[in-house]
Specification:
The structure holds three protein chains of three kinds. By secondary structure, chain A is mainly α. Chain A contains 24 helices and no strands. In chain A, helix 18 (361-371) crosses helix 19. By secondary structure, chain B is mainly α. Chain B has helices spanning 30-49, 80-103, 110-131, 139-165, 173-191, 194-218, 223-248, 250-253, 274-278, 282-300, 302-312, 314-319, 324-346, 362-372, 377-398, 410-425; strands spanning 55-59, 75-79, 136-138, 261-263, 279-281. In chain B, strands 2-1-3 form a three-stranded mixed β-sheet. The longest helix of chain B has 27 residues, at 139-165. The relative contact order of chain B is 0.15. In chain C, the strands form five sheets. Chain C has a six-stranded mixed β-sheet, with helices on both faces. Chain C has a six-stranded mixed β-sheet with strand order 16-19-20-13-21-22, with helices on both faces. In chain C, strands 2-1-4-5 form a four-stranded antiparallel β-sheet, with helices on one face. Chain C has helices at residues 41-48, 71-76, 94-99, 112-126, 141-154, 171-186, 198-204, 226-234, 293-300, 323-328, 338-342, 349-353, 371-384, 401-413, 431-446, 458-464, 486-493, 498-506; strands spanning 3-12, 15-25, 30-34, 56-61, 64-66, 79-82, 159-163, 190-195, 207-212, 215-220, 252-262, 268-278, 282-286, 308-313, 316-317, 331-334, 364-365, 368-369, 419-423, 451-454, 467-472, 475-481. In chain C, helix 14 packs parallel to helix 15 (431-446) and helix 17 packs across helix 18. By secondary structure, chain C is an alpha/beta fold. In chain C, a hairpin with a 2-residue loop joins strand 4 (56-61) and strand 5. The chains are: A mainly alpha, B mainly alpha, C alpha/beta. Chains A and C meet through helix 2, helix 15, helix 16, helix 23 and helix 24 of A and strand 2, helix 1, helix 10, helix 11 and strand 18 of C. Chain C: InterPro entries: AAA+_ATPase, ABC_carbohydrate_import_ATPase, ABC_transporter-like_ATP-bd, ABC_transporter-like_CS, P-loop_NTPase. Chain C: GO terms for molecular function: ATP binding.
Chain lengths: 530, 445, 523
């Protein structure tokens, strides 16, 4: 899903990447070819897994709709006498809900038809008719893009940290801080038109970067797990904003109301599609952020260092890369991007600060980044997709009375399913694909199951878990690793093969880092490679 | 071939073994510095911040308490500023002792811990004195509130201890609490008895446990991701049912039920601590029991030894025939059931109906309590009590009459657990030893 | 107990680690399994111990076929194993480790007293000095190994598998271990002794089975000729010596004075080290693993925070400088563990080749990376070092160990150096690559670069070095010429000063009964 240039996914394509393909061993190649029948390669593909993940998630969603639907429950009460009623009621409940979701997320056909009819009544036709009707129809789509805007930017921030081996769970906090900074500058300071906007955005970036940097600093200086610190910082920011919104500096004249004054017109992001739509310039910023992600990770020395540290911090350190500084850098960049998302959200979409300004964007961004495999294209698609679910869900709630929370369930399930392709294949009866031949079994399942979700380099590192950055006694090559080393290059010793994070559990280093809180270190040893 | 050649005698001038020197640790100054800063803050803020004229009243015994001859005084009023300054001075003395001990590498052993605890108590009293100057602190009532608030945190933290000791990171405590709260009310309402809810709560949160174990242990998905996503899942699921089924028929599905309070005669009449310890519902007593049982089980039984081995070095455990992933499954499930009881506290424990996202971050505080409690049941309980105390304080301060007290914004007290945890994970209060294999999936070859 | 393996086959992917292996271990014999690193010895033993499922073949104990679905089954059947990497839980006490999985006690409660008793009894029987309440992570490796042996024996092991047990031991400790092995054998325990060290095999084994590339290539008596065993093991006649011209040392380039490292807990890791390295010479650093070699190289690279003393390279002080600055000063470094310390597994071969230089011209200008320059360098290096890779864009983790090591070596040597440091330059590398890498190191010396080689393989140090420094417990015991008597070196590794060691050797002591003074030694 993401740009192929980034070499981010040795773990993505287990079937291929794990074969060393040494030119000297034709046997391996032949076996690889024969094993890779067309069917299997399709079954192993990630696209299929993604599609199936959505299918299953929606199936579960359907069950929830049924359970919660009064008519369905009523019909279930007399199921034995009139089974047709239950089926009919179920069908109606599900189709109406999902149709509403589509209508609210992509294209509002009934709305467009109504506009068309109105114009036709007044004698309009041709472009006069189709134009406005179309514009009415795509209103939901534009709304989806509006919702996607901060989500994409925040996901880009998340992706930077994930690919650098840091688990930034602090989206909410960084978003709040960014939004607060941008918002404050936006309503409290008077500046000329363009400059005001730029200063607001800069404030968001700086604030988010500094806030993210706290976690990076704690990681670099004290080895504190960024998972824990960012979670804590989320709540600290939440309460800090709640407090700020009780002060007159933030609420302005109306102190009883915990909202800020509206952002000054000079600081608002210009609308892109006219006054009827909320779509604003933030979308362009989001696209720029995506491009920035690509550039940073594959064309800059900074990203090179981030990725190196994410994949093997020890090797990076030995090669002269300052791991601590890199951790701070990653968190500053990630925080700045998430902060920017908060700024864009408040300057473009919300236009005033409230206690719940961050909403669930912070956590949604994590799922979007994961779904998009932390790659630029993937994030763009996943961001729009999840935003569509969310806007569609809102419409579904108002139109069909199905709570929008259903969307959260579906999103969570999608991510879970995508994280465990073997489960998805098992559910569709393709379980055998994972173990085409007995000896391969370990290879295939291992590669999938390990961190497919986190297919990018960074997340792989993190996925391999915490444990010691320096496993002292662990340094001698372990058989069978050594087996591969000395002999014709074969899978068992090949570090590409996820034989086992087993060894990484080996707390062999007495002086190691077990003493620090690090339930999720990217300084994870690369497990089996040791 | 040959027999052993006579052992060469080591030469005298061979270098000595690199032993632990009695040199100071590099971090020797951390704790004394932290305490000094806190003590000075107490002196400046609490001491000089309290108006000289005001006094703070501490209510210890209340009417009707078992208080023969009034051994425990009722209301004690003390001039706020004087008390704060005295307490702060004592804090400084303790900080000084620790400076001396750390600088001269004098081993204090348990005294060190005791000193820190005493410091904490003095500091907190000084804080209360300042925060409530000109008003009354009802100590018994405050502790009672603390206990109620601590129970869900403690259960959540115990869930974390169970799962992380076996090597599975449990970020999903929040979701487990929420499912427990939801299940307790749902089933309790349907059956019409809070006792049914008490049984349903752990069962319901097992759902999260099963998913966590399935994905984290079974499919070896990154455990932090699973935890975060499961929290989203739990919020979505419970909110969905809250918005549909429960709204459609609250009578049937979402009644405010309450577990009865079990009062232990006489003991419950003791001043200050009587009601806190002996007039609670079954969940509170269960919490004490589980903490005790778990402490013994983890450190004195075969099961505990194996669990800890699995969390520290799963491969070693495997080589002596211990089923690593089975142990992890078991512990994750057990943990989620325990967290379910914590969830039940939020609803049937306090007599309220279910509400959307009612766990409100308690799962994350529980996570923090587990870390601060160093993955030990007793430590986790202590941390939970500490965090609950700040919450209780915040609630009490909200009810202060205007004009009295220090006017501390409640948000700052709400933030406190998180800030304390930040310092804790940064190692200011000493290193926390994480189970070495925490978060690392185990693959059997 | 008699142990028999019949036709054991174990396949990983397309790689056959064990190919129809037959092996019989008679009761009360020490049976040595001899083979190079990676020959498949450990795989075989892991199959025996129930850690791997065999893809074919069967295991017989006292002529009864058995099937193990896990190590628990193997243990119950009387098989004990001392793993190369100890399977001990570091924060547990000795007693806890020994009883784990086999806990005495009633109602699930632990009976620590009985576990302590077991430890004490077994300790006394074999003359170990092990405190049952000591925490394992605080024990020296030798003691940890004894805990492993106690652990196996406490489960009534009738067959004891020792996997490369001497890798972490001093010659003296190795002698003691051999004494223990003989004692166990005499009490009727069958022992499988896995090693790649010929001398040890000849000293202690009753029978020898040689394994190469997953196959049994021969069995032998301990009296068999050593070179014959060696060529059996490596598969062709081995060139035991490296052709190299005598060194032509120039002026002193590296001057280390009073270098010390103390860790955060106050443990002295490196104790007042003085060293000089001249231009155009190889200084070898010998010693048993864990005696400060790692800390020495790391301190030289600026990787040890808080190092004391002085390191002067061409007159410039390096202590206090960052690793980046030291690398930029022209230090080339090959760390001891390539997968852990040197390579970024997800990075391509090309990216790994510029890992330490990526920020400099021509690979980058400021923050801008120049992928074309990176690829140009990679193409050249892959060619020069004969790295077998499909493409320079392949992830380095897809390469074999030998080729990975070549990447690490190419990275370090691919520019003009003022100092070259290589730790375990050939660990886990096949014989062909070893020769190539050794020649590259000597070529670098001949270019006039000062070279430091750290290796725990004494033979490698002797082959490559012009002078040898022996490290022991964080200090340098002495620096001797490369042609020093092996026995003297062995004694020095055990803590003797050079003079004391020479005296002892002159008086007839040998490092160990395993030393065969007359013949050439094998890698």
């Amino acid at each position: 899903m993401s740009a192929p240039t980034e070499g981010q996914a040795p773990a993505v394509a287990p079937g291929t990447a794990t074969q060393p393909g040494d030119p000297g061993t034709p046997g391996a190649e032949a076996a690889e070819r024969s094993a890779g029948s067309v069917l299997q390669s399709i079954a192993r593909s990630n696209v299929l897994v993604v599609v199936l993940a959505f299918v299953f998630a929606f199936v579960v969603g359907s069950v929830l709709i049924l359970v919660s639907d009064v008519d369905v429950r009523a019909a279930a009460g007399y199921f034995l006498s009139r089974p047709g009623d239950l089926i009919g009621a179920s069908w109606t409940a599900i189709t109406e809900a999902y149709a509403a979701m589509f209508r609210g997320a992509v294209f509002d056909l009934p709305g467009a038809r109504k506009v068309a009819d109105d114009i036709a009544e007044r004698g309009g036709s041709g472009l006069y008719l189709l134009g406005p009707a179309f514009l009415r129809g795509i209103k939901p789509l534009l709304e989806t893009l509006t919702v996607a805007t901060p989500l994409i930017i925040a996901s880009v921030g998340m992706a930077v940290s994930f690919r650098s081996g840091l688990f930034n769970i602090g989206g909410t906090g960084q978003l709040i801080v960014g939004a607060t900074a941008a918002g404050y500058v936006g309503f409290a300071i008077d500046l000329p038109v363009v400059i005001h906007l730029l200063v607001c955005i800069l404030a968001a970036i700086v604030a988010g970067g500094l806030y993210g940097g706290i976690a990076g600093f704690l990681k670099a200086r004290f080895g504190a797990s960024e998972v824990i610190t960012t979670i804590m910082l989320n709540w600290i920011a939440t309460y800090a904003l709640a407090f700020a919104l009780t002060t007159s500096a933030f609420t302005g004249a109306n102190k009883a109301q915990p909202t800020s004054p509206a952002i000054a017109g000079t600081a608002r992001l210009p609308l892109l599609a006219g006054d009827q739509y909320r779509l604003h310039l933030g979308l362009v910023i989001a696209l720029l952020a995506v491009v920035f992600l690509w550039w940073l990770m594959s064309r800059s020395t900074l990203g090179f260092r981030f990725r190196a540290v994410g994949s093997n911090p020890r090797a990076a350190e030995v090669a002269g890369i300052d791991v601590g500084r890199s951790a701070i850098g990653v968190m500053v960049v990630a925080g700045a991007l998430v902060g920017l998302a908060g700024g864009v959200h408040v300057l473009g979409t919300e236009q005033r600060l409230t206690g719940s300004i961050a909403g669930s964007i912070g956590f949604d961004a994590i799922t979007v980044a994961l779904l998009g495999r932390s790659g630029p294209v993937g994030i763009l698609l996943a961001g729009v997709l999840f935003a569509g679910l969310s806007t569609g869900g809102r419409f579904m709630e108002s139109a069909q009375g199905v709570p929008i929370d259903l969307v959260q369930v579906i999103q969570a399930l999608v991510v879970l399913f995508i994280a465990a392709p073997p489960l998805v294949r098992f559910l569709v009866g393709l379980g055998g694909v994972d173990r085409p031949r007995a000896p391969r079994r370990r290879t295939a399942t291992g590669a999938h199951a390990a961190p497919v979700l986190a297919a990018d380099a960074a997340a792989v590192a993190a996925a391999e878990g915490p444990a010691a950055p320096r496993e002292g006694a662990h340094r001698a090559p372990v058989e069978p690793a050594a087996d591969g080393g000395a002999q014709p290059p074969g899978p068992p010793g090949d570090p590409a093969e996820p034989v086992g994070p087993v060894d990484s559990a080996d707390p062999a280093d007495p002086a190691g880092t077990h003493s620090t809180v690090d339930p999720c270190g990217p300084d994870a040893p690369k497990g089996e490679n040791a | 071939m040959s027999t052993l050649v006579q052992d060469p005698v080591p030469v005298a001038d061979a270098p000595v073994v690199p032993v632990r020197t009695s040199e100071r640790l590099r971090s020797w100054w951390h704790l004394p510095t932290a305490l000094t800063v806190l003590a000075l803050a107490a002196l400046l803020v609490f001491g000089l911040g309290s108006p000289a004229a005001d006094s703070t009243t501490f209510r210890l015994a209340a009417e009707g308490d078992l208080n023969p001859g009034g051994i425990v005084p009722g209301d004690v009023a003390i001039p706020a500023r004087v008390l704060a300054i005295v307490l702060a001075a004592l804090c400084l003395v303790i900080a000084g002792v620790l400076w001396w001990a750390s600088a001269t590498v004098t081993a204090l052993g348990r005294w060190r811990t005791a000193l820190v605890v005493v410091f904490g108590l003095l500091w907190v009293i000084a804080f209360l004195d300042w925060a409530f100057h000109g008003a009354t602190v009802d100590v018994g009532a405050m502790l009672q509130t603390m206990m109620v608030l601590a129970v869900p945190l403690a259960f959540g933290a115990l869930s974390g201890v169970l799962s992380e000791r076996s090597g599975v990171i449990n970020i999903a405590i929040e979701g487990q609490l929420l499912m427990g709260a939801f299940g307790a009310v749902l089933v309790g309402s349907m059956v019409g008895s809070p006792w049914a809810g008490l049984i349903a709560a752990p069962v319901m949160s097992l759902l999260i446990g099963v998913l966590l174990a399935l994905f984290a242990v079974g499919y070896r998905v990154q455990q932090i991701i699973v935890g975060v996503v499961l929290n989203v899942f739990a919020i979505g699921l419970t909110s969905f049912f809250f918005g549909t089924v429960m709204k459609q028929n609250p009578q049937m599905f979402n009644q405010p039920l309450r577990l009865p309070t079990l009062r232990i005669p006489l003991l419950a009449d003791l001043p200050v601590i009587g009601r806190v310890l002996f007039e609670q519902n079954i969940l509170v007593y269960l919490m004490w029991i589980i903490v005790a049982v778990l402490t013994v089980a983890l450190f004195r039984t075969r099961w505990g030894l194996r669990v800890r081995a699995v969390g520290e070095h799963p491969r070693a455990a495997d080589t002596v025939g211990i089923n690593v992933n089975g142990t992890r499954w078991g512990n994750v499930l057990l943990g989620s059931a325990v967290a379910g009881l914590g969830g039940a506290t939020l609803t049937i424990g306090t007599g309220v109906a279910f509400g959307e996202e009612m766990s409100a971050g308690k799962g994350y505080i529980a996570l923090a309590a587990m870390i601060l409690g160093r993955y030990h049941p007793v430590g986790a309980l202590a941390a939970a009590l500490l965090f609950a105390f700040t919450d209780a304080l915040q609630l009490r301060l909200g009810t202060l009459p205007t004009g009295s007290g220090a006017g501390i914004p409640s948000q700052f007290l709400l933030m406190l657990p998180y800030i304390v945890t930040l310092f804790a994970v940064a190692g200011v209060v000493g290193r926390v030893r994480v189970p070495a294999a925490d978060g690392v999936p185990y693959v059997k070859q | 107990m008699k142990l028999e393996l019949r036709g054991i086959t174990k396949v990983f992917g397309t790689f056959v680690a064990n190919d129809a292996i037959d092996l019989v271990v008679e009761p009360g014999e020490i049976h040595s399994l001899l083979g190079e690193n990676g020959a498949g010895k450990s795989t075989l033993m892991n199959v025996l111990y129930g850690l791997y499922r065999p893809d074919g073949g069967e295991i017989l104990l006292d002529d009864e076929p058995v099937r193990f679905s896990g190590p628990g089954d193997a243990m119950r059947a009387g098989i004990g194993m001392v793993h190369q990497h100890f399977m001990l839980v570091p924060p547990f006490t000795v007693a806890e480790n020994v009883m784990l999985g086999n806990e005495p006690g009633t109602f699930g409660f632990l009976d620590l007293a009985s576990a302590r008793r077991t430890v004490r009894e077994l300790s006394a029987r074999f003359g170990f000095d092990i405190d049952p309440d000591a925490v394992v992570e605080d024990l020296p490796v030798g003691a940890q190994q004894r805990v492993e042996i106690i652990k196996a024996l406490s489960r009534q092991a009738k067959v004891l598998v020792l996997d490369e047990p001497t890798a972490v031991l001093t010659p003296h400790e190795t002698d003691e271990l051999m004494g223990i092995m003989r004692q166990l054998r005499d009490e009727g325990t069958s022992i499988v002794f896995i090693t790649h060290k010929l001398r040890e095999v000849k000293a202690v084994a009753d029978r020898i089975t040689v394994i190469r590339r997953g196959r049994i290539v021969g069995t032998a008596d301990p009296s068999a000729d050593q070179t014959e065993l060696a060529s059996l093991m490596v598969g062709r006649s081995v060139a035991l010596d490296l052709d190299k011209a005598p060194a032509a040392p120039g002026e002193v380039a590296l001057e280390v004075r009073g270098l010390g490292v103390t860790d955060a807990d106050g443990v002295v890791l490196l104790d007042d080290v003085d060293l000089d390295v001249h231009r155009g010479e190889v200084l070898g650093v010998a010693g048993v693993q864990g005696n400060g070699q790692t800390e020495l190289t790391e301190a030289l690279l600026g990787l040890q925070k808080g190092a004391r003393g002085s390191i002067r390279l061409d007159g410039a002080e390096l202590v206090g400088r960052s690793t980046r600055q030291i690398l930029d000063a022209g230090v080339g470094f090959v760390p001891e563990d390539r997968t852990h310390d040197a390579l970024v597994p997800d990075f391509s071969v090309a990216e790994n080749l510029v890992l330490d230089q990526h920020h400099r011209a021509p690979y980058a200008t400021g923050v801008l990376l120049h992928p074309e320059a990176v690829r140009r360098r990679a193409t050249a290096e892959v060619e020069e070092f004969d790295v077998r890779t499909g493409s320079i864009d392949d992830a380095v983790s897809t390469l074999s160990g030998g080729n990975q090591q070549k990447v690490v070596m190419a990275r370090a040597l691919g520019r003009d150096l003022s100092l070259f440091i290589a730790s375990q330059p050939t660990r886990g590398v096949d014989v062909g690559s070893i020769e190539f890498l050794h020649r590259r190191i000597v070529a670098e010396r001949d270019k006039g670069t000062p070279v430091i080689i750290v290796s725990t393989e004494l033979d490698e140090v002797i082959q490559l070095s012009d002078r040898i420094a022996v490290m022991y417990r964080g200090g340098i015991l002495g620096i001797v010429p490369a042609d020093e008597d092996r026995d003297v070196l062995g004694l020095m590794m055990a803590g003797y000063t050079a003079e004391a060691a020479r005296e002892a050797v002159a008086a007839g002591a040998r490092t160990s009964d395993t030393t065969l003074a007359d013949e050439g030694d094998i890698v």
